[in-house]
């Protein structure tokens, strides 16, 4: 009986055959992550959008127009605080969609997930463009916030399982490369958006709508190229010359067996790692949001060589220190990205558990040192502490997929990672709320601006202590949680994993059919490397203002 030929997006069509070069998979993942990573940079649109109708000056809404009124109003401009809800939605939807559709992704394969991600993320931007054009904020919430957020979640986890299976010898490095791209997305997207808005702006238009359209189209090309660049290894594939360490002598924290995603909600180790990620991210994300105002309020005129506190500066001086603080924020973004690759790669040598111990102990020391360096007026120590903190914030994201693969096995690690990202969604609310609430509370008590962050730093140290305790409690799983051989075979069947699946498409005489020229590999890396290098260059230009 003839079997139905697999479709263009089906998993059977993307099994890498003999001679396939696994180094083609990371640039495919980067192509998607560099696009969806623009979620971090969406704040570049808030100021222009807050003047979408007035252009020069915002047309303020009356006191009777609340948040719900701003969703539908066409007569006044949106407030920046209202626009900021899109940012919150991004990360809530990223976590919930990754958790909801992670199991589907494991069975459908990364290509299908990548295509759906591209349609959602780029389609959402086009709906947002229509929302800007008609001045309907509910369309932007639906477009980029909800539909785009779903694309964000699917795109984020699409390469995780695939990369871990292609790089069993370097799990941390492989996931670090892709998740570095997510951190780098804003580094490319923010200056690109700023340039496009400047190009499209007219005396009657802020240029956001046209910018959304252009970026959606560019991102769609990149994301589709990434999705079609994905390949999955055949069952049992290993890198040439690499043999997995025998079970009895291998690291007891790295299992050779596999857990089904449906069981993880009931496993204590899952919740311990959930808290590990939540505490690491809550502390870091709280700092990211307040880095610029904190530097300005703590050091005031010292940033530009004037012996005056923040409240004593005039308008021009405030503008000058804001420029310096923007350079500080750019410097932090470089450490955020670099840390993703550095720490995840280092975790291959140290082990995941020890790497997180370093994050929490060293991070705790850094946070604890901040009030002291602020009181001493040491800008160098203050900035250095935050650079290290941000490198470990990024490193936490990049190391956790490999941690999950070690503990729960590789069969369904993408789906398990998707469920773990609910910790990120929680931290996205918890971190900023704690930091902002504490700041307002301290100001309300009449504490000077340069001291309002001291208590906050000690609270963040407390979060890291909780994370450290949870990490120390992570132990290898009890055998009862793993799939039996029969259950694993059934899951592999549902995931279309057959060692001979490639024969369905290529025919039995296809030896070496997937052999790729080194030139193609170099071009694939150039396609993602050149935009990333441009983003780093633009960021370094901002960093120069800080050191100036």
SSE blueprint:
Elements: E1 15-16, H1 25-36, H2 46-49, H3 67-72, H4 80-108, H5 110-134, H6 137-157, H7 160-166, H8 171-200, H9 208-229, E2 232-233, H10 268-299, H11 315-350, H12 352-375, H13 379-408, H14 413-420, H15 422-444, H16 454-472, H17 485-494, H18 501-506, H19 518-547
Parallel strand pairs: 1-2
Describe the structure.
The chain has 548 residues and is an all-alpha fold. It contains 19 helices and two strands. It has helices spanning 25-36, 46-49, 67-72, 80-108, 110-134, 137-157, 160-166, 171-200, 208-229, 268-299, 315-350, 352-375, 379-408, 413-420, 422-444, 454-472, 485-494, 501-506, 518-547, and strands spanning 15-16, 232-233. Strands 1-2 form a two-stranded parallel ribbon. The protein is globular and about 70 Å long. The termini are far apart.
Lateral strand order in the biggest sheet: 1-2
Number of helices: 19
Largest pleated sheet: 2 strands, parallel
Return Rg in Å.
24 Å
Shape: globular
Name the helicity range: 55-70%
CATH class of the largest domain: Mainly Alpha
Beta-strand percent range: under 5%
Whole-number total of structural domains:
2
Mean pLDDT: 89
Order of helices and strands: EHHHHHHHHHEHHHHHHHHHH
Tell me the CATH superfamily of the largest domain.
Answer: MFS general substrate transporter like domains
Number of strands: 2
Structural class: mainly alpha
Unreliable spans: 499-512
* CATH fold descriptor of the largest domain: Growth Hormone, Chain: A
Instruction: Based on the coordinates given, report the CATH architecture of the largest domain.
Output: Up-down Bundle
What distance separates the N and C termini? 74 Å
């Amino acid at each position: 009986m003839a079997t139905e030929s697999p479709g263009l997006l089906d998993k059977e069509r993307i099994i890498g055959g003999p001679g396939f070069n696994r180094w083609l998979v990371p640039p495919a993942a980067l192509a998607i992550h560099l696009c969806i990573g623009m979620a971090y940079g969406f704040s570049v649109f808030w100021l222009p959008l807050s003047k979408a109708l007035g252009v020069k000056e915002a047309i303020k809404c009356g006191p009777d127009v609340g948040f719900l009124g701003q969703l539908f109003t066409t007569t006044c401009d949106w407030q920046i605080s209202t626009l900021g809800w899109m940012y919150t939605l991004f990360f809530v939807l990223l976590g919930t969609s990754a958790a909801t559709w992670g199991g589907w992704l494991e069975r459908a394969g990364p290509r299908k997930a990548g295509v759906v991600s591209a349609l959602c993320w780029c389609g959402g931007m086009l709906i947002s463009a229509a929302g800007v054009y008609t001045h309907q904020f509910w369309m932007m919430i639906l477009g980029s916030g909800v539909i785009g957020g779903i694309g964000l979640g699917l795109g984020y986890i699409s390469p995780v399982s695939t990369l871990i299976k292609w790089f069993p010898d370097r799990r941390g490095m492989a996931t670090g490369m892709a998740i570095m791209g997510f951190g780098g997305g804003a580094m490319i997207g923010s200056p690109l958006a700023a340039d496009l808005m400047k190009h499209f702006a007219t005396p009657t238009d802020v240029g956001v709508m046209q910018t959304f359209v252009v970026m959606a189209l560019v991102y769609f090309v990149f994301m589709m190229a990434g999705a079609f660049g994905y390949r999955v290894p055949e069952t049992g594939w290993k890198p040439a010359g690499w043999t997995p360490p025998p079970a009895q002598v291998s690291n007891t924290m790295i299992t050779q067996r596999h857990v089904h995603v449906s069981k993880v909600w009931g496993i204590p180790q899952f919740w311990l790692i959930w808290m590990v990620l939540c505490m690491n991210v809550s502390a870091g994300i709280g700092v990211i949001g307040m880095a610029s105002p904190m530097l300005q309020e703590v050091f005031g005129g010292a940033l530009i060589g004037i012996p005056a506190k923040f409240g004593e500066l005039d308008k021009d001086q405030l503008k000058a220190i804001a420029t310096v603080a923007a350079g500080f924020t750019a410097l932090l973004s470089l450490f955020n990205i670099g840390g993703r690759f550095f720490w995840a790669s280092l975790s291959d040598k140290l082990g995941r558990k020890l790497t997180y111990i370093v994050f929490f102990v060293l991070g705790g020391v850094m946070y604890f040192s901040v009030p002291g360096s602020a009181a001493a007026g040491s800008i160098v120590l203050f900035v250095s502490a935050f650079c290290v903190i941000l490198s470990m914030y990024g490193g936490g994201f990049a190391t956790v997929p490999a941690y999950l693969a070690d503990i729960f096995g590789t069969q369904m690690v993408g789906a398990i990672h998707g469920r773990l990202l609910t910790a990120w969604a929680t931290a996205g609310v918890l971190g900023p709320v704690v930091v902002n609430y504490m700041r307002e509370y301290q100001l309300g008590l009449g504490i000077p601006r340069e001291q309002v962050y001291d208590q906050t730093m000690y609270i963040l140290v407390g979060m890291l202590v909780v994370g450290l305790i949870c990490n120390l409690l992570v132990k290898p799983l009890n055998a009862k949680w793993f799939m039996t051989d029969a259950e694993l075979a059934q899951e592999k069947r549902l995931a279309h994993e057959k060692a001979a699946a490639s024969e369905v498409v290529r025919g039995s005489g296809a030896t070496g059919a997937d052999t790729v020229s080194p030139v193609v590999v170099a071009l694939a890396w150039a396609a993602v490397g050149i935009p990333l290098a441009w983003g780093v260059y633009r960021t370094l230009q901002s960093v120069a203002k800080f050191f100036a």
